Amino acid sequence: MAASELYTKCARVWIPDVEEVWKSAELIKDYKNGDASLQLMLEDGTNIDHKLDPKTKNLPYLRNPDILVGENDLTALSYLHEPAVLHNLKVRFIDSKLIYTYCGIVLVAINPYETLPIYGTDIINAYSGQNMGDMDPHIFAVAEEAYKQMARDERNQSIIVSGESGAGKTVSAKYAMRYFATVSGSASEANVEEKVLASNPIMEAIGNAKTTRNDNSSRFGKYIEIGFDTRFRIIGANMRTYLLEKSRVVFQADEERNYHIFYQLCASSHLPEFKNLKLSSANDFLYTRQGRSPVIDGVDDTKELCSTRNAFSLLGINESYQKGLFQVLAAILHLGNVEIKDRDSDSSIIPPNNRHLTAFCELVGVTYQDMSQWLCHRKLKTATETYIKPLPRLQATNARDALSKHIYAKLFNWIVEHVNKALITNVKQHSFIGVLDIYGFETFEINSFEQFCINYANEKLQQQFNMHVFKLEQEEYMKEQIPWTLIDFYDNQPCINLIEAKMGILDLLDEECRMPRGSDDSWAQKLYNTHLKTCSLFEKPRMSNRAFIIQHFADKVEYQCDGFLEKNKDTVNEEQINVLKASKFDLLVELFQDEEKATSPTGQVPGTGGRTRLSVKPEKSRETSSREHKKTVGCQFRNSLQMLMDTLNATTPHYVRCIKPNDFKLAFSFDPKRAVQQLRACGVLETIRISAAGFPSRWTYQEFFSRYRVLMKQKDVLPDKKLTCRNVLEKLVQDQDKYQFGKTKIFFRAGQVAYLEKLRADKLRAACIRIQKTIRCWLARKKYLRKRNAAITIQRFTRGYQARCLAKFLRRTQAATIIQKYQRMCVEKKRYRQKQAAALAMQTILRAYMARQKYQALLREHKAVIIQKHVRGWLARCWYKRCLVSLVYLQCCFRRMKARRELKKLKIEARSVEHFKKLNKGMENKIMQLQRKIDEQNKDNRLISDRLAGLETSYTAESERMRGELGRLRGVEEDAKNKGNQVNSLLEELEKLRKELSATQQEKKTIEDWAQTYRDEMEKMVSELKDQNGSLKKEKDDLNRSIQEQSQQMTEKMARLIAEETQQLETDLNEERSRYQNLLTEHLRLEEKYDDLKEEMALSSNVSKPGHRRTDSTHSSNESEYTYNSEYAELEEGSRAAEDVTRGIDTPLTLKLQKRLTELEQEKQSLRNELENKEEQFQRARARDDAEFKKARGAELEYESLKRQELESENKKLRHDLAEMRQSLLGHPATGAGAPGSPAYKVLLDQLNASCEELEVRKEEVLILRSQLVSQKEAMQHKDEKETMTEPSVYVEDVSKLKDADEIKQAYIGLKDTNRSPRFMCKPLEVSDLLSRLRSAAPDFHKLNEDGELWLVNQGLKETIRLLEHQLQTQRRSYDNEVEALRGELQNVKEENNRQQQLLAQNLQLPPEARIEASLQHEITRLTNENLELLADDPTASREARVIILRRMVDLMEQLEKQDRTIRKLKKQLKVYSKRIGEMGAGQAEGQTSPGQMVDEPIHPVNIPRREKDFQGMLEYKKEDELKLVKNLILELKPRGVAVNLIPGLPAYILFMCLRHADYLNDDQKVRTLLTSTINSIKKILKKRGDDFETVSFWLSNTCRFLHCLKQYSGDPAFMKHNSQRQNEHSLSNFDLAEYRQVISDLAIQIYQQLIKCMENILQPMIVSGMLEHETIQGVSGVKPTGLRKRTSSIADEGTDTLDSILRQLSAFHSTMCQHGTDPELIKQVVKQQFYIIGAVTLNNLLLRKDMCSWSKGMQIRYNVSQLEEWLRDKGLMTCGAKETLEPLIQAAQLLQVKKKTDEDAEAICSMCLALTTAQIVKVLNLYTPVNEFEERVSVAFIRTIQTRLRDRCETPQLLMDTKMIYPVTFPFNPSSLALETIQIPTSLNLGFLTRV
Fold this sequence. Notes:
By secondary structure, this protein is of the alpha+beta class. The strands form eight sheets. It has a seven-stranded mixed β-sheet with strand order 6-7-21-8-17-11-12, with helices on both faces. A hairpin with a 4-residue loop joins β19 (547-551) and β20 (556-560).
């Protein structure tokens, strides 16, 4: 289809923008051919009219579909152009926080300016072994790809890291080297990888500095070759450096710093070791203060110097050299502070005694005078003379700075050389990986010689990059066999020719430098004249004649010519160099001792050593050296760059392009302008352009079929998918040029995938619409039918309900009418009666009320009349009193007046006697009148008193009723003399009483009102109290309920706390157990490393001794013949081997290993401290047992002496029986019954055989008894030596009394009769069988011995046998008598030996070592108890008895020796006798069978049957058979055959039965060697076949079974609960193997961990394919375009592992462990670990693969997890905890499927994903990628909401799960019900040398 057809409405395009470079817009109108503009709408809703270029008519770039945005590989984009690349990088960087992106073969790394947790060891392990495209882009993926191709293709690799300053080049290179050091390790123990990493801080200190763009900018280029051996382990490294920026030593721009090392020294100047350097603050030195930024935020220069010094030490640069280096650096700083002043215009001078120059001279060891002279002068030579010329101040200052730069460059080269020496090893290098950390394209406002060289190097690298990309494209096309078309790409060879060709810029620069008066201006003119008109890439600025412009591949750069010549020459004053060479400072002399070789060890270091003009002697060699030294900087740089290009062309390159997102160092801030500029400069866009020119989109046929299956019809799908894809593409895309069919892939032009995606989306959209239509129709119809049925049902029920209601209403109406009638009648009747009663009551009340009112009115009227009467009387009296008082007063006044007048007259009359007389006469009259008046007044007073008494009486009653107030009136009656006053008082009292009456009435009313109010209040209060009581009851109930709830909550809380505490304790215990098991693993690893070192040292020592060297073939052929003698020999030579190993390995490694071993031993000892108390208790208990055992040994000695006597008596009786038989046979010489073959002869033969066997048994018993008696005698003698010496006479007497054997025998027989145990009662064997056989009928023996064979017998038996033969022939008649006599004799023997046979008969079946212990156990116990009782009762008697027994034993030993000699003699005679008889019988058989004569009746020999042995569950073996046992049972045992054919755990049972026998013998050496051999053999077989799951599982099962047996039969009651009585009898009796149980437990832990590793190695390659990549549910997942991220060289064959493969493998593991008899609890732990590995690996890959984070993949994962759970359910393992280990994976799958939009969704996610960390949740959300257009991306705001909600979580920031984590294993005790005595040893084990006991 035409490209213009894609520009339809709603299509999105990119248009240029000034600020954002490119801006997205959407077409609002279809584009038609010929339109001059496009109608667009921006994202902010603005409509614009985009004009098209009228000449080119180029349409704007189309935007990729949303599902392709954020891809891992830029080449996977359908539209490949600059805006698409920029937008994809921005989305990944800003939205997804992903800093790495593939661009074809290039890894684009954007500096985040933030520390990210993506470089840990877990991430390294996750990327290790993975294909480059399988995981998300990462620097580790590139490193892994380089490492893998080096190992696979046997070709050297290079990683080229480039970018601007501050883009992160150094960090990327550092992480790449860290990856190599981690995944490969080192070939030796010299820690080469640590040294490689340690070179970084050194090179950063001396070569990195702070710039305006970067705080740690590398100011030089470096190429590090990391060498590998044939096993691809690091063996060393080599470093080349390029173009050190020497000018930074003497000058820094603003906000920049000098090299870090100077500031580190200044910051550490206070340290004692730096006092002699005379340093101070960095602001005090010129060379460190020019940038005015001496401090970097967050960097401690003092600590950095410590790191630098540690790195120096690690690389072998000792303290003296370090001191020298720092001395030179301090001298440079002091030299910069040397002040040069003008002497005149043409000369300069340094003031005398300049302290900085003095310090410089002291530090470098030169004289002050020489240095000060040659800093201000220079020597000039002509053809005839030499003279000294003074220098102006400016030139002298430049010369000083040039010397500083030269010294620093020499020092830099020296350090690089010594670093290389430390990194180079003697091991031959097989291959290498080079890491190139070089500057990117640079352009500044002022560009000089350094920028010119940098851009020149980038031109060369870009050319190499273009050619490599072009080559890969060509190889891809040729491999896929598609037509090859030439792709046009930018070739920068013309630019390179402009710089380096003949008459190029560098050539003209060197020529100008050789000119005597060359200058920058003349060089610029030559450039203009040469290239201005001939080269289009060279331009001249318009406004300058001292600059030029070069059109580089990235951009145009204008270079200023000033300083080019001087920097190219790099001139240093020759005399200054000579002064330094004459220094007394050895390091400085070493720096300048070889000027012409002052380069890096592996090649010339350009820019670090410039051209130095020196005065040299005219010698040939010196001239050659001078010419060699006079190479300019440009020439040196060109040569080294060519060498670098040759190295890169000889390797497979891998490209890392570092991008600086902004100039302000802001975290995750993206500046599109700066990013585009760098993308253009670093070649990323060129890669895109080359890819876009061909077929950038590439799909495999399977991927295409899976993705676009929806576009095919059913008839189009053919069995051949390739043909199906062809047919479909021909229908969908008409233009055949838009795609090509390759061998395995389909190639598409740019934009075709977008077109196919559009068709797919349209098809899916149409299908979705159709599905929605159908589903909505079905839902609507279903809803309608449901509503219709519901309506009908509702109507039916409603109508029925209404009918029922109507009937009910009618019935209720009728009933209500009747009820109402009667009810109304009752109501009316009741109402009438109520009214009647109320009327009567009202009438009664009213009449009573009216009567009361009338009575009250009458009473009130009466009382009112009385009151009125009294009041009126009182008023009248008051008026009268007032009138009387007034009259009296008037009278008094008048009388006074008359009296005064009369007095006046009297005064006059008084003067006369008549007057006095008249006066007296008048006085008498007056007295009489007064007397009469007084009487009248008294009368009146009495009347008034009477009246008052009446008033008082009336008022008294009233006053009594009114609270008794009238009592006061009684006082008025008493005051009869003061009536007037009393009246007043009465009136006042009356008034007061009225007031009180009214007050009392008021109070009464008030009291009544208050009573009413109080009553109301009480009623209200009662109601309130009732309400309050109710509320209180309710509150009480609530409180009770709340208390119950709280108690329940507290109970639950306590239970939860207890559970949490228990869980915490379990967690702590598991952590401790895990730590202990990890220590065991580390200890095992160190042991294996030690063994490997010992083997290597042995091999290295054998190199010099070829006669003793063992070849590999010999070793392999003799592996099966392994014996422990070699191990013992190795142990004996352990010290010498350790010394050899110590001398062979590196000293730091030895110290490190020793320190690590010490730490491991300390930790292991600390873990076992808890067992010490138990061990001490065990030792104390064992001491007590030993004491008791020693006491018991005395009793045992007594019994054994009696046993020896019994054996003597038996031997005597046997000899006596034999003698009696001989006499009885010799007693009848006439008969022939004793002839050979006769019954008597046969009986005699059988009896002799039985006697022979019996004597053999007795002999063995005697030997054992003798050895034990001797050892015990020595022990008893040593113990009782002092006691024996105290009473010698008594002991001798006692011994003499008991020397008679008969007395000892009788005493022993009596002892047995009284202490016989039923356990040893058994039926006698030989005698009874012999009697029964003698009673049988005798055959005919007449024809025997007719051939004269008796002569041979007579020759063998000598005279005695001949006499016996004659007697047997002559006594045939007396046969019966002889039989009876023999029977009687045998019966006597039977009666005599019956008691002895009872204990011995059963023990005869046991081995000799076990007979005594088994038969005498009961007697030992009894005698021990008796001895203990005797010792408690009478210690002295006990001691005497023991001494007596000891003396008896001495005598018995002598008798035993005699018996021994006798037994040997008799045994020899019996052997000879039985041999002769056997020969005689054979001869008779031959003589009887003659020709023609048949034997009528076969002769049946008379056999004496033996009783079946009662085995004790022990296996006996000889000491020399121990190695054979270990070899056959462990080293050469095939687990598969044992697991199938034999019982589970058989080797463990066999080993334990052997151990039991060693314990039974009390042989501690045998126990120790057996256990040690077993443990070492198991370790050896695991080391040899540790990768075989069946072997490891088999020995894990047997080791656990062996451990359980040690516990079950240990005698510990805790382990004997489930034992049977027989099993308890089989317990170990002599040794406590608790310590060995711990050792075997540790061995089981090691085997378990080995099993887990073996299982992990099998499972891990299957997990990702089966759990993630394989589509278990077909058609759910959609395959997205992958671009070039899966390189052909990186992809192995397609894996076929599916989920079914994993389940089959799990079933195989489970069945194998079940067949081997592994404990069920242990199987559960193994399955739990398996599921943890599956979940952890799957989740880690999910977190590192953006293409897997989609909704459909979440469904696949959940389905796969359900299948795993079903497997657990089928195996009955749901309770083993395996399901819980999958919880993080389940929650991650749920997270992919849940809705991710609103705050409610965020809350649901936070509550759901409890097993995931915040980092994992955010990572999944960032990686979530829609597979289809219908899915939506997760917004940044939603992710921030999640982060905010999860901010308070306390968790580790680790992103990935630890796949190496192993749960601590426990071995629960699992006793066996299998009886040891029933175990049979199959012959296939070749263990015939073992004897069952």
